[in-house]
Structures are given as structure tokens and as C-alpha cells.
Amino acid sequence: MEPVTNAETVVAAGTGERIERILCPVDFSEASVKAYRHAHSIASHYGAKLIVQYVIELSEHFSACYAPTAPLFEETRETFTANGLRDLHQFVDIPGCNPPECIAQSAMTAPDAILSLAQERAISLIVLGTHGRRGFDRAMLGSVTERVLRHATCPVLAVRDAAPDSAAQGPADAPVLVRRILCCVDFSAHSRRALKYALSAADAYDAEVTVLHVLDNIPDSADVGKETATAMEDFGSLFPATAPRSPKTHLEVRLGKAYQEILKSAAEMQSDLIVTGVRGRNSLDIAVFGSTTYRVIQLGAAPVLTVPIWLPRMV
């Protein structure tokens, strides 16, 4: 896998948020292969440590859950873990990718194991695959990806598997290229933090960034021209006055339903990455998550990086 910049490049502290430890949970699916390649690419560009995790959910194995004795349960769990670690080493043995640290675990639920390891290892970024489905399927609100997105204390990159007829479908061993980044903002604090990650990724990959604000729920009586002009002025609040905006950073205002306009913009610019902020676990309810971030992840082709506002400041 050939990064756009030198594989040893580390993003300087002054250019944006640092990514030092990446966790990539996998389940050996095609989505996991794609997520692993993205995680490996990011680790190469940031000089970050990559940890790949495989969780064997004991709740799905009758023989483990109903072992007659504690020693037999422990023996069964150790067998699952050993087999999982063997399979994990085979999974990460991909030409062109340096082997990461591999961790196989037996646990009752995958999300809890992922979140626990992320906290234990002070993970900077979680990268995981998600299976795309058309439409807003409420049944997916119990998925591993959704639970990790809701409760992780670090940014999460959700990498969708491409549909068979998708233009995004490509060779499994194709290098990960990030040339165009779409950063969605609403001028709140979480938008500013998301923009820092977008600009950091742009630095790492020498990519262009389009900063998008969508005028959503605008009344029919509103002066759209005035609202647009105000939004263009508000973009200035997102950028430090001491740091001039890069010529590779573009500003855009659209009118319409937020998730629809985000998807349209991403498709038109052939975005390789979408970055958005979320307010945190207390206000990230089904209505907010489902109507915007969740739908962008489910319906879009590009990976989506969600950045929670309540992150501790990284040093």
C-alpha cells in the first residue's frame, strides 16, 4: 500500500489533531478488509501504532454459555481465543501491509470489548467496517458499529462495504487514497473540533477539503440570499485568525435536508472521506443520530469520521 506522502510522515502538532494509536476491530468480512486497509493507511501517514482486534462473542456460542463447569467454560473460552488469534494473524497477512499488533478476545458482547480496549489503550481513533443497507433500518440501531459510535470517547471512522453495483467498488488490494475530504459544520464547538481532524487528514494526505454548511429547516419566508451570506461569514469563526486558510480549503453552503445535501455534495465531489462532529452521548439520541450522521453512514459511499465534542484535549 503506497501512501500519498512518505509512510513515516507524522503530522506536526500545529497542523491539527494527532492520531497516535489506532484500533481496528474486525470480523473477517469484506467490510473488515476495507476498514483494515484504511486503518493501515492512516497509521502509515501518521506514524501511529495500529492494533487489530477480533472479538469472539460467547453469547453466540451455545457450548460456551452452557458449559457445565467453570473449568470447562474456561477451557472452551481459551480454545475460541487461540483459534481466533490464529485466524487474525492470517487476516492481517496482506501483501504491502506491515503486520500490526493482534489481539483476540472472548467476551459476551463485541461492543463492550471494543470500548474497553479503546479506553485501556488510550486509543486515538477507532476504524471499523459497517455493512451498508439501503434505507433507514431501525434494526441496525443495535449493531456493533452503532453502539461503538454512540459510546466511544475517541473519533470513530466507519468504513462501509461497497454494494456490488457501486461505483466505489474496486479491487480489494487497491491503495487507500484520500484526495477530497468533505467536512460538515454547523458552526458549533463540535464543528470546530471536526474541522481540526479534517484539516489534519488533509495535511497527512495532501488532500483538498470542502467545508459544508447546510441551511436546514429554513422557513419559506426566509431570505435565502441573506442566510447564505451570513453562513459564509460564519465560516470565519472556524478558522484561527493567525492561520490563513489553505488554498485547498473550499467553503460551500447548501439549502435542503442536511443528510441529503451532504450525500449529494459527497457524490458530486467524489469525496474520499466525510468528517462530522457529534455532540456527545447525552444528546446523541435516535432522532439526531438517525436523521443525519447515521443516514450518511448508511447511504453514502465514503467512509465517515465522527468526532465527539466531549473528547479530552490531546497533547
Write the layout of secondary structure elements.
Elements (H helix, E strand, L loop, with lengths): L20 E6 L3 H17 L2 E9 L4 H4 L4 H22 L9 E7 L2 H11 L4 E6 L13 H8 L4 E5 L19 E5 L4 H17 L2 E8 L8 H11 L14 E7 L2 H11 L4 E6 L7 H14 L4 E5 L7
Parallel strand pairs: 1-2, 1-4, 2-3, 4-5, 6-7, 6-9, 7-8, 9-10
Antiparallel strand pairs: 5-10
Helix pairs in contact: 4-5, 8-9
Describe the protein's architecture and organization.
This protein is α/β, with parallel strands linked by helices. The chain has one domain: 3-Layer(aba) Sandwich (Rossmann fold), CATH 3.40.50. It has nine helices and ten strands. Strands 3-2-1-4-5-10-9-6-7-8 form a ten-stranded mixed sheet, with helices on both faces. The longest helix has 22 residues, at 70-91.
Share of residues in strands: 15-25%
CATH topology tier name: Rossmann fold
State the shape: elongated
Spatial order of strands in the largest sheet: 3-2-1-4-5-10-9-6-7-8
Count of DSSP E strands? Answer: 10
Radius of gyration: 20 Å
Unreliable runs, pLDDT <50, ≥5 residues?
A: 1-15, 134-142, 163-169, 280-290, 311-315
Note the run of SSEs as H and E.
EHEHHEHEHEEHEHEHEHE
From the helix content, strand content and strand pairing, which structural class follows? Answer: alpha/beta
Helix content: 25-40%
Number of domains: 1
What's the pLDDT, averaged over the residues?
79
Counting DSSP H or I runs of 4 or more residues, the number of helices is 9
Distance between the termini: 29 Å
CATH class: Alpha Beta
